[in-house]
Amino acid sequence: MDKEKFNTILPVITAHLVDKISTSENMPEDEAIENLYASELYVFLENERTKVWQYSTQKLYDLYKCEKSNGKLELPEY
User: Are 17 and 64 in contact (CB under 8 A)?
Assistant: First the structure.
């Protein structure tokens, strides 16, 4: 995917994930944003080459939860 397209869809993916975190964990949206941006998951998400952006919102949320509970990100292997 070219950089322009990726830069267009990343904010949409991020917004959906922030909403999921905020709703599921009953936290303010700004706190959900801070937590997501501080995560290793977000580092992978913003790198188009990792293809993490292709995961569903639910899958991204599951990865986020696992990272928070385990202290490290564990991506599925395909």
Answer: yes
Task: Give Dmax over CA atoms of the chain in angstroms.
Answer: 36
Q: Where does residue 19 rank: exposed (0-12), middle (13-18), buried (19+ CB within 10 A)?
A: middle
pTM here is 0.92
**pLDDT (tens digit, 9 = 90+) per residue, 19-71?**
999 999 999 999 999 999 999 999 999 999 999 999 999 999 999 999 999 99
Q: Whole-angstrom distance between the N-terminal and C-terminal Cα of the chain?
A: 20
Q: Environment class of residue 2 by beta-carbon count within 10 Å: exposed (0-12), middle (13-18) or buried (19+)?
A: exposed
